[in-house]
Automatic annotation (TrEMBL):
Part of the twin-arginine translocation (Tat) system that transports large folded proteins containing a characteristic twin-arginine motif in their signal peptide across membranes. TatA could form the protein-conducting channel of the Tat system. Its main location: membrane. This is Sec-independent protein translocase protein TatA. The chain crosses the membrane at residues 6-28. It comes from Pedobacter xixiisoli. Residues 59-121 are annotated as: Disordered. GO terms for biological process: protein transport by the Tat complex. Pfam families: TatA_B_E. It is a single-pass membrane protein. The gene is tatA. The keyword Transmembrane helix applies. InterPro entries: TatA/B/E, TatA/E. Forms a complex with TatC.
């Protein structure tokens, strides 16, 4: 990811690093150095885990916001594309009184048609 050494921001060269290591050995001794390195490694690992957790949470929130926005737009588009269907009437409904009246046979009045004279123009 980065091509620069880890401590380049401190502007420390090789000879300064060796001097620091010798100073640490003199201050803490050889017996405490493994415990110190272990504690330092554990602290760095916890810091990395915490920063990765924050990154994951940020990405999760961004992605959920994007998917919520896409779902809302899809719902709006679906409203405009699909016509509203009235499902209150079904082909299996009972016939109503009006429908029954329409189905009854009605007599045809042929006398009125015969009374009117047909004009031929």
């Amino acid at each position: 990811m980065y091509n620069t050494p880890l401590l380049e921001f401190l502007n420390i060269g090789g000879s300064e690093m060796i001097l620091i290591v010798i100073a640490i050995l003199l201050l803490f001794g050889g017996k405490k150095l493994p415990e110190l390195a272990k504690g330092l490694g554990k602290g760095i690992r916890e810091f990395k885990d915490a920063s990765e957790g924050v990154k994951r949470e940020i990405h999760r929130n961004i992605n959920s916001f994007d998917t919520d926005e896409e779902d809302r737009k899809a719902d709006e588009n679906r409203k405009y594309r699909e016509p509203e269907v009235d499902n209150s009437h079904s082909i299996h409904d009972e016939p109503t009184a009006a429908a029954e009246n329409q189905n009854e046979a009605q007599p045809v009045d042929t006398k009125e048609e015969e009374k009117e004279p047909k004009s031929s123009v």
